[in-house]
Amino acid sequence: MSNKEKLVIFDTTMRDGEQSPGAAMSKEEKLRIAKALERMRVDVIEAGFPIASPGDFEAVQAVAEVVKDSTVCGLARALDKDIDRAGEALKPAVSGRIHTFIATSPIHMEQKLRMSPQQVFEQAVHAVKRARNYTDDVEFSAEDAVRSDFDFLCRVFEAVIKAGARTINVPDTVGYSLPALWGERIKKLIENVPNADKVVWSTHCHNDLGMAVANSLAAVMSGARQVECTINGLGERAGNASLEEIVMAVKVRRDVFTCDTGIDTTLIVPTSKLVSQITGYPVQPNKAVVGANAFAHESGIHQDGVLKSRETYEIMRAQDVGWSTNKLTLGKLSGRNAFRARLQELGIQLDGEEALNNAFARFKELADKKSEIFDEDLQALVSAAFQDEGERIKLTYLRVCSETGCTPEAQITLTVDAKVREVRSVGGGPVDAAFKAIESVVQSGAQLLLYSVNNITSGTDSQGEVTVRLEKGGRIVNGQGADTDIVIASAKAYVNALNRMLEPLGKMHPQV
Ligand code: KIV
Ligand code: ZN
């Protein structure tokens, strides 16, 4: 670790990232992501919004129980009931933080909260004092700080620092700012708010104009020492600042930054893949750092240059961000103990021997089709095992017929609430035929918004990972499926999305 100042990395993949349409995560999924973030040495993990739903409360509590090396944070509006719920969920944490917020811009105060600035001021102070009853580690955010009156913002920040906030977060909630302006705003806040040196200044930027990372880095250059970000830039609307870009910018441009993160950058790519796989949000190939093409050189001149000296066209090494940590893990001959040990190393906890036996049986099935099993394969396999628990619709059989000159046909067997249904359907292609067959049984009437296929690892024997996004009556869900046969993976993903559609309605949105 360098002797530079610490830049705190606050990950909000499981809270703001979860606000992406269809990206809601289960407790088990959050636990796996939390373990990956902890291994990567993320400083603060915002695990959720405990008042949002009983499920989110349990997820935050479970993360608080399991994570030891990172601070676990829960979000709370500046309301007693939210703060009490967050305090309760965080009780088991070795290090727990309550993050409370209220909007301070005229438009939010008038139109959304219907409160006067004085009421907002008092509620902010009250919230911080209440949160301090649970923990010393209280963060305050002024939602829509970007469009808030500067003097009012200073007054609120001064008062919440006095009330006991330790971190002051300045969000660009709507992704409206520009780097020079954001840097200037942070600098002026630090210069003007009394006792600014007693707290950590933080920034939280959204990406509506594609500026989230640039704005966050401008804030860091002006003295912010915490950045709120998400893996793959996942998040509300156009997303949040992406963790991997922030961390690598600070590392690669260490000549410019006077602070440093404690992140183990070699775990960036595996964590990015895990989040993409769990949320069903694929990473665009040309995405900085974690995109499949981020280190691929297409033009002959570039290839020639890189072969002669890597630095001609590369500013960082692929292995430094984890591209080569694609470890060959297990094979056909690996036993149950090796399988269990690797799951443990990946932070995957299966409940009891039966769950382990089920997962091991799936592993053996996969090892028969694919000689080399990687960590990514194990993650997909475990996702499938968790998915199957308690699902009302199950795919038990699929046969597709696809040949030149013939109309593709799918024959499918589903069990719906334990009732067996068999159907056949034709379609434009084998996937279309399979989806039509499933739909003819379930009759969900949902609209297919997205269908995407990615290979989990490389090679033609790789498992295909399919994401299906469905919408019905304004509700959006994502479903995932993985298999070495992409038609089967597609059918699994469609069934998974339908099962999610059948679950009770989702969570409350924090920005209400
Ligand atoms: O974007 C935002 O303002 C938020 C706050 C809750 C910090 O997510
Ligand atoms: Zn946000």
CATH level-four homologous superfamily name of the largest domain: Aldolase class I
CATH third-level topology of the largest domain: TIM Barrel
> Strands of the biggest beta sheet: in what spatial order?
2-3-4-5-6-7-8-9
The CATH architecture assignment of the largest domain turns out to be Alpha-Beta Barrel
Q: Tell how many strands the DSSP assignment holds.
A: 18
Oligomeric form: single chain
The helical percent reads: 25-40%
Beta-strand portion reads: 15-25%
Number of domains: 3
- Uncertain runs are none
Overall mean pLDDT score?
92
Assign an overall shape.
Answer: globular
Q: Which structural class should the secondary elements be placed in?
A: alpha/beta
Largest β-sheet summary: 8 strands, parallel, barrel
Report the C-alpha radius of gyration, rounded: 24 Å
Which molecules other than protein and nucleic acid are bound?
A: 3-methyl-2-oxobutanoic acid, zinc ion
**What top-tier CATH class of the largest domain fits best?**
Alpha Beta
Question: Kindly, what is the distance between the CA atoms of the first and last residues, rounded to a whole number of angstroms?
Answer: 41 Å
Protein architecture, described:
The protein is of the alpha/beta class. It folds into three domains: 5-279, Aldolase class I (TIM Barrel, Alpha-Beta Barrel), CATH 3.20.20; 336-387; 390-502, Double Stranded RNA Binding Domain (2-Layer Sandwich). 39% of the residues lie in helices and 21% in strands. It has helices at 27-39, 54-66, 80-89, 106-113, 117-132, 150-163, 179-192, 212-221, 243-252, 268-279, 300-308, 336-345, 352-369, 375-388, 430-442, 486-502, and strands at 5-6, 8-11, 44-48, 71-77, 96-103, 138-143, 167-172, 200-205, 226-229, 259-260, 328-331, 372-374, 393-401, 409-416, 419-426, 447-455, 464-472, 475-483. It has an eight-stranded parallel beta barrel, surrounded by eight helices. Strands 13-14-15 form a three-stranded antiparallel β-sheet. The protein is globular, with a radius of gyration of 24 Å. The mean pLDDT is 92. Zinc ion is lined by residues 16, 171, 173, 204, 206, 236.
